[in-house]
Amino acid sequence: MRKFNRARKTDATPGASVNHDVIPVSCSNDDRLLLTMMAGDVSYTGWSSCRYSREIRPACRYGGQNKPVGPVMMHSSLFVFDIETVPDIDVLPQLTGETAPDPETGRKMLEDYHLEITSGRNGFPRQPFHKVVAISFLRATIQRDGDLEMYEIEELRSGGDLTSEEKDLVNGFFAYCGKLYPRLVSFNGRGFDLPVLKYRAMKHGVTARWLHQASNKWENYTSRYAPNWHCDLAEVLSDYGASARTKMNEVCAALDLPGKTGVDGSKVSDMFDNGEIDGIRRYCETDVLNTYLLYLRHALHTGLTDHDGYNHAINLTVGWLEERAGDIPAYQEFLDAWRASSGGSFNVL
After folding, report:
1. What angle do CA 45, 47, 50 make, to 5 degrees?
2. Would you tell me how many other CB atoms lie within 10 Å of the CB of residue 133?
3. Sign of the C-alpha dihedral, residues 265, 267, 273, 278?
4. How confident is the model over 208-256, as pLDDT tens digits?
5. Closest CA relative to residue 153, chosen from 142, 169, 165, 168
6. pLDDT tens digits for 89-108?
7. How many CB atoms lie within 10 A of CB 244?
8. Residues in CB range of 322: below 8 A, 6 or more apart
């Protein structure tokens, strides 16, 4: 099996200590550039002197005819995430002028509002009207051997604790990612999870400057077509809408992955009403696991990794879960479902 060495720190310019998240390259003879980019918790700043411009700008790659084509960013970690929400019925007095007597009635009132504005087509609340009750994530390091990547699971957990308020969950998410500058991985994260998180961040006054910084329109977290920054598998697997968008559970079924185990999103509101926060968090973590397994298969298909790297990541994930399954029944349930769906192979190829 191929051995993947961890990326090492290098120097971009004399006397500049550079984090391995960013690999600078030389620019044209007309330019004298130093890197201006935030990577992790390290900032690099310098001047740009160009015969066409006097502005400060980041180091960049150059394409044909000496045209800049964007900064070189090598993320050192994956951040696979998912959120669970309940309808925010506190908006009803402002939105409809009515007050709900109880949560169940309030959700029905919010659903009726959305059915009315969509002419009966969709009663699901729009992104601003969701309250975040769980944020779960899997963090994996990215190791590189030439142009191949390998992924090692480091942690899988939910943010905060059972008593955390929404503001603390949202603030923790943006603060943690702001330190990592990871490659984000989600399933419909661009369409739902991140928009919800941004609305709730604005509600609570949470800053997320790192998410919106960009040196060009193509390579940044907000670009739709930048899967190296945010790989939304729902978008990528449908070729950005060229083919039908599928549900994660459908893709998992097609690829012999476990998919949903025991709980689905329709039960979250009732679980929240009953105080089953731990159950919501564990359900959210298994959704993250499914997303990670889908990403590994996608990385193999696109050539980001090879069979050795893929199998190594799968074996590490199985071992990581087995070590913790005795204490966390949801992990054991996931392992059992995975073993059954894969015929005992755990999808090792």
Report:
1. 145
2. 20
3. negative
4. 999 999 878 889 999 999 999 999 999 999 999 999 999 999 999 999 9
5. 142
6. 999 999 999 999 999 999 99
7. 7
8. 335
CA 345, CA 77: separation in Å to the nearest integer?
A: 27
**What is 210-275 written as a DSSP string?**
HHH--SSSSSSTT-TT-TTTEEEHHHHHTTTTTS----HHHHHHHTT-----S--GGGHHHHHHTT
Q: What digits encode the pLDDT tens for the residues 48-97?
A: 333 333 333 333 444 444 444 444 568 999 999 999 999 999 999 999 99
Torsions phi, psi for 222 (to 5 deg): -95, -5
Quote the strand ranges of the chain, DSSP E. Answer: 10-11, 17-18, 32-33, 37-39, 42-44, 48-49, 61-62, 68-70, 77-87, 130-145, 148-158, 183-186, 230-232
Find, among 6, 83, 82, the residue nearest to 292 by Cα: 82
Start-to-end CA distance of the chain, whole Å, equals 13
Cα(124)–Cα(219) distance, integer angstroms: 32
Name residue 68's beta-bridge partners: 62
Residue 293, SS3 per DSSP: helix
Q: How far is C-alpha 173 from the geometric centre of its chain's CA atoms?
A: 10
Distance between CA atoms of residues 39 and 251, nearest Å: 34
Q: Angle 329-341/307-324 helices, nearest 10 degrees?
A: 140
Q: Supply 138's token pair.
A: 């899997």
Give percent of the chain above pLDDT 70: 79
Q: Which amino acid is at 1?
A: M
Q: Which two tokens stand for residue 240?
A: 């950005």
DSSP-derived letter for residue 73 is: B
Band of residue 195 on the pLDDT scale cut at 50, 70, 90? very high
